[in-house]
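From the shared-data thread, chain only:
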Amino acid sequence: MRRGGFASILWAGMKMLFSMSWLALAGAFLAGCASGSKVFYHAGDETPPVFLTGPAAALLTNVEGFSAKVTVSMPGADGARRTMTGELLGRQGALIFQPSSAVQGKRAKREGGMYFIWSETQHSGYVLSDALQAYAPTAASVTPTNVALQSSAAVEEEANGHRCRRMEAMVQCGDGSSERFQVWQAQDAKSFPVRIRAEAGGREMTLEFSDVRLELPPAQVFGPPDGFIRYETPGALMNDLIIRQSALGKGAGGPPAQTGTDSGPMLDNWRPSLPK
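Structure, as tokens:
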């Protein structure tokens, strides 16, 4: 039985199936000090990032398996640049994105944020919460159908410590739309794209990958853990998270948006309302 969230299922899979290099990777996911940092939930946090569910994800399926750190830079709703970092795993068209969190280590299970599982082949996935021990299905409104690389015009450049071939890529979607990208394919990493850049309507998005490992993660981590409660929608899941943090914040005498502190109420015994 798989119990626990992203960190625990990854750790279990690594222990069973992989070499010391994968154990080191699992340790990186699990490591961190039990600091006083706190997680704050907001409406919209349950939305998977666009690079995971949009056309860019089709560019991450050219290798059988990988793990990497990713930094995403893109404009926010107010036009200012926003940066998101995290860990990305891939296996045969399936992806897991774990955003970097202020809470790590043992506290991540009870106070951790959201993480996302996505199947590029099925164009659907899950939003998951360690804190709630819950998940909700999600799907894409626009589905990529084809990737065309203009390799004949490739230019050799260095990106993120790799010798690369920079080329244009066109991703065509099922609704007839298409999106153009620049990709930097690493020649020493089976053409994995260590940099991806897109500009649509004046909104530039850049993905930078580092610490790339071309190894196949265990298949069982690409689904909701056993024992997680299913919500019908990501919004319903987030509503319960916000209600929970508000109740716990008031109980601890802190602001409503606080999820808890080391000296505050333990979250392990909290149970969400059953989804309708």
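Residues 24 and 53 are 28 Å apart (CA to CA).
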